[in-house]
Amino acid sequence: MPQQLAFDAWLDCIEEKREGVLATVLQTREAGPPGRLFIPKDGQAIGTLGDSALDAQALLVAAKKLNESNPKPQTKGLHNAEKKEVSVFMDVYIPPLKLMIFGAGHDAIPVAKYGASLGFHTVVVDQRPFYNSEERFPGATRIIAETAKFAERLFIDSRTYIIVMNHHLEKDQETLKFVLPSKAPYIGVLGPRSRRIRMLEAIEKEGVRFENSQLERMYSPVGLDIGASGAEEIAISVLGEIIAVKNGHTGGFLHNSMHIHQLAQS
Amino acid sequence: MSENLLVIEAIQEAREAGRKSALATVVRVYGSAYRREGAKMLVDEHENITGMISGGCLEADVAEAAKQVIESGVPALKTYAMDEDVVWGLGLGCPGTVEIYIEPVPDHQPANKKAGNEDASATCF
């Protein structure tokens, strides 16, 4: 049955870490197999919600969700051919988000460790094999590359969260020249505001200019204001900020706030 | 982020072992809830449970409902309105309404049985 194939295709795609949406009619009657449509990011949809009008709307919703940087599963009221509303649960799978850390210093170790346990696909970029080692960064993908090789070695997409922490002015500048024009939604840069200004001015002197929209993704000083001191606390502060940006929240205390979660976008 | 992956693995395991199972998914949330839409829990016929759909308030009841779904083969949509009385009565403290869809996990389609299956795997590439 095509509906059953849809479910299997969904499981396969999750195992293969490919993006896709599974639409399921929330039906509770014994009326044959539940309407189900699997919509992969690349390739053809499988199955049916039992009605071509429903299928068409589900395809549109799925395409929109797969375009978002952090899509959420959601139940939608879709309309069937008889214009009756049908509840369809749109489950979204996207592969783990990427956390790319530039700099393999001692303070990157807890960032990589907590990042991996949060479920990020964690990547550490540093040209020094002695620092960027398996022992120091278990569970992370390590890329030993100098800045000149970034373009051919690194892949950054709209689901890559970046932290620049080379502790080296020139390396940070070269890294910024590479990451600021990318699609990354977040670029955290370690160090005080004065350092940020100094680096951007130096880059500008080289004749490289960035759009305001590109600079808005640059978070510096990096992290949430929790008075973090020491590598472990700073890692929590930085990752807290990344989670907030990913979820479209502003950080800060929940104490006395009206809502814990943002209301789902329609 | 990776919690649902454990549930997916549990589905595959139950299928390979020939155990029937039901999948519970949070499909709607109003107000506060520990887990959001998309959170999953698998219950198999031996009552093995994988995953969480709340902070511990609903798991036992959903597992009970899942047993019926496994037996009948008919999906169920359960609404848990955690109003103040219920919350105070049980001391749970997660006020909000959660809808959970519980469906029987379909048997695996043998790879060589249906011609259509080729299309199914083809879309993943």
Fold and architecture overview:
Chain B: This is Xanthine and CO dehydrogenases maturation factor, XdhC/CoxF family. Chain B: Residues 15-80 form the XdhC- CoxI domain. Chain B: It holds the Pfam family XdhC_CoxI. The complex is a heterodimer of chains A (266) and B (125). Chain A has 8 helices and 11 strands. Chain A is an alpha/beta fold and 266 residues long. Chain A has 2 domains: 2-93, no CATH class; 98-246, 3-Layer(aba) Sandwich (Rossmann fold). In chain A, the strands form 2 sheets. A 6-stranded parallel sheet of chain A has the order 8-7-6-9-10-11, with helices on both faces. In chain A, β4 (74-79) and β5 (85-93) form a beta hairpin. Chain B has one domain (3-122). Chain B has helices at 3-16, 59-72, 84-90, 117-122; strands spanning 21-31, 40-44, 49-50, 76-81, 96-104. In chain B, 35% of the residues are buried. Classes of the chains: A alpha/beta (266), B alpha+beta (125). At the A-B interface, α1 and β5 of A face α1, β1, β5 and α4 of B.
Average predicted local confidence, pLDDT of chain A: 92
Number of domains of chain B: 1
Shape of chain A: elongated
Number of helices of chain A: 8
Shape of chain B: globular
Terminal Cα span of chain B: 24 Å
The quaternary state of the protein chains shown equals: heterodimer
Sequence of strands across the biggest β-sheet of chain A:
8-7-6-9-10-11
What is the CATH-assigned architecture of the largest domain in chain A? 3-Layer(aba) Sandwich
Residues in helix, % of chain B: 25-40%
Largest interface: A-B, 45 and 38 residues
